[in-house]
Design goal:
The protein is an alpha/beta fold and about 325 residues long. It contains 14 helices and 13 strands.
Length: about 325
């Protein structure tokens, strides 16, 4: 952890919740979250915009759009255990959908592993893990016992040669090279894996050669699916990302993020990103595994038409 963070506790209602939105994305039927604010401090995060009205922020006296703190429920594994045992409808649950169960504050309470144990010891449940932290590797011993029911994913938001740039906007997440190493380890242990290329920021991770490198790596580790997404323009994320990059002296990257704050530029960036990912996935014989998650509300007509003309692998949300 590169910076100390303030940790607040809250009490969440329930442990496992139905998630129609994530079902539509093809990710999971259920969601599990261990709090309302993650300590990784990713500047582009849209969780603050989504959860800004949650009472935990007022109780903690924190701004949902600021960073440097985390809000977690240390008792969430017990709530997950209760729900896992008593819910009649069961299926695939994502751990997590808005926060990270292996972030620094979560590791303090071992929330990721405890939630896995609570869920997987009950029949009928499967888990999709999504994290930006290499600490998940410490739980591979347990995951291996249930390998058929667990999908392991670590967000790859850039190629390893760009990890110093990403550390500027993902200050408390594991470096990209460590995430790559953990995914290799998972594959070598025979664990199921999937790719999560999200978000691929402009002038940092969206160049065709960088995308090809990421897709090639996904193929090497035998991913079952590749999810991809553009940066979410909702909330203050783009402004905060631009500010962080500029403060770090990364002017070209900051300028690129500034450009996509304009709707027409964001639309063009998305259309180009989809095309580049499709090209790479086809080159490596993986197009059937592509799941590009697209919110089309801000698309310009020309870009929408171009995507509709070749929408293979695109999930319209």
């Amino acid at each position: 952890m590169s910076k100390r963070i303030r940790i607040h506790r809250c009490s969440l209602k329930g442990g496992i919740k139905s998630s129609p939105e994530f079902a539509k994305k093809g990710l999971a039927q259920f969601g599990i979250n261990i709090g309302t604010k993650c300590g990784h401090g990713c500047t582009y995060c849209s969780t603050g915009a989504m959860l800004r009205c949650h009472p935990s922020f007022k109780a903690a006296k924190e701004n949902p759009f600021k960073h440097g703190y985390a809000i977690i429920d240390p008792d969430i594994p017990e709530k997950v255990a209760h729900d896992a045992a008593h819910m009649r409808n069961r299926g695939l649950a994502q751990l997590c959908t808005t926060v990270d169960a292996w972030a620094p504050e979560s590791k303090k309470y071992d929330l990721g592993r405890r939630c896995l144990e609570a869920l997987l010891t009950q029949p009928g449940w499967a888990v999709r893990i999504l994290t930006k932290n290499a600490a998940v590797a410490k739980d591979f011993d347990f995951i291996r016992e249930y390998r058929d029911r667990v999908l392991v994913g670590l967000s790859l938001t850039a190629t390893p040669d760009r990890e110093n740039v990403m550390l500027t906007v993902e200050p408390n997440a594991s470096p990209i090279s460590e995430r790559v190493a953990v995914l290799k380890q998972a594959h070598e242990m025979g664990l199921r894996t999937y790719g999560m290329l999200c978000p691929l920021l402009p002038n940092i991770a969206d160049a065709p050669q960088h995308i090809d490198q990421l897709v090639r790596f996904c193929k090497i580790i035998g991913v079952e699916e590749v999810f991809a997404e553009a940066v979410n323009p909702r909330g203050a994320g783009l402004r905060l990302t631009e500010d962080a990059l500029r403060a770090a002296g990364l002017a070209a990257e900051a300028d690129a993020v500034h450009q996509v704050r304009r709707t027409e530029n964001w639309s063009a960036y998305v259309a180009k990103l989809i095309k580049s990912i499709q090209v790479a996935m086809r080159r490596h014989g993986m197009i059937s595994r592509l799941r590009f998650l697209l919110y089309p509300a801000r698309l310009q007509d020309a870009d929408r038409n171009a995507i509709e003309k070749d929408g293979e692998g695109v999930i319209w949300l």
